[in-house]
Write the structure tokens for this entry.
Amino acid sequence: MESIRIFSPASVANISCGFDVLGLALETIGDFMTVIKVPEPGVRITRITGQKLPLEAKKNVAGVAALALLDKFEFEGGFEIEIEKRIKPGSGIGSSAASASGAVWAINELLGHPFSKLELVEFAMEGERLASGAAHADNVAPALFGGFTLVRSYEPLDIIRIPAPEDLFATVVHPLIEIKTADSRKILKTSITLADGIKQWGNLGGLVAGLYTKDYGLIGRSLVDHIIEPTRSILIPGFDEVKRAALNAGALGCGISGSGPSIFALSKGETIAKQTAAVMKEIYGGLEIDYDVHVSNINPYGIKEIY
Amino acid sequence: MESIRIFSPASVANISCGFDVLGLALETIGDFMTVIKVPEPGVRITRITGQKLPLEAKKNVAGVAALALLDKFEFEGGFEIEIEKRIKPGSGIGSSAASASGAVWAINELLGHPFSKLELVEFAMEGERLASGAAHADNVAPALFGGFTLVRSYEPLDIIRIPAPEDLFATVVHPLIEIKTADSRKILKTSITLADGIKQWGNLGGLVAGLYTKDYGLIGRSLVDHIIEPTRSILIPGFDEVKRAALNAGALGCGISGSGPSIFALSKGETIAKQTAAVMKEIYGGLEIDYDVHVSNINPYGIKEIY
């Protein structure tokens, strides 16, 4: 195989009680990429459409991830990458993760699968380091594995893929405002009460149990965040209204996607997910804030080849 | 039915990363109780063997739990309770929980099941309140439900039963020393770092996933406690040695049972669980500290009638 065209999904990280550990892959929004094996060594980003992003490989998350992979593999040639960005950077649904993961997944295909998915996560995390200063795995893991992913530990890296119940749908609204990642981080406290911690891990245990047993009620009861949401949601206009309306529309739960500003909701069935989208639109329409809305099943496989 | 004889199991609470939320029921150690329906109203503890404990119903955990149940049920008669204590109070394996749960379970049988297991947990928690000042559910839940139980939330009370893989065995060593519960609580910090919290809920998610998928390796990797064990283990002589030896003997993980002084280990298969018991004995023998050791499968049903 000399070239491959792929779809790399957007993802929701920091799922309520799963701050920094639990993410999920979306299916209806993601980047398209074409990667070509060429005789010339190195990595070149030949074209980016949809967004203005650096073409220089060392300054582009896909380039950096690809270079991290090639650093661990003896190969005389190189790769050219074209990126059709569909995910807006800064939206909070894993834009950089999709490009970084897509690059390494595609190259691994073209090289005949020398690396495991877990190793690909590590390469893609180098792209995340470029994007945000921290090599986190909570968006690249769902992009690469699909379903829900739990980053149990970083040292060593340990990722558990948790299958999503088939009827689970995500609604994501992206209010088109800018939150500086630095602000979103600064607002977090470095310590929490033990009592809040206990509630959080009780809920995470409940959420994982609900996913395995397809217990939508339990999933809903567990989608609670006592720690991050109360402070971070202040930065997102309309958050409380959107959440209230989503739950009233029948969503199982609702919270901040990644570090925002996107807000996600999970629902049983596409109908409720669409109704949730409708109330989200109504609220941001009323607030005169532009927005994008996505309704998606949970992507079961992650990145895929497009024919 | 006018009388019933039951077995009510000991239990391990605070399972490593599951502080305050995750417990499991044992099978080879527990209290035996006989409960008799009588015409005279009220609850009488007629006999306790094995331990010196108060016979007055209002001062006995089983009596208090039974009275909490009868407070919610119109019944003209009463109950007599005989308790054969096999679990030592203060051991950290749910001694008071076994008696309290056993009493309400047995009375519920004799009354024709007016209450759900969740309601029985609430009655039994009143016994726990008498025993320790706090109406916690982390031992009464596994005693009543069997398997592993996750107390997802207290308000409202939400308990999730998680089945244990069949090959999972527990080893529990009880060094016969006294730790005052007050000391064991006092040593806990009321706040934790967010970073430690994230590790803890990552591990709890991993443990729950491992139990559902019968992934013993994942169960083992997740049996880590970054928060409570480092401080509480100081109160248990030999803890570090016992833990090291248990892991060397092949146990998947090892930690403090409840608030101690008992130490539990989980293993794949009875052979390793017995080898773990052997090294535990060796260490407490060397330290000249008396001990009890139990090896048990995970009790799948909780309290049961004995014929």
About this structure: Chain A touches chain B through 40 residues (CB under 8 Å). Chain A has two domains: 3-163+300-305, 168-297. Chain A has ten helices and twelve strands.
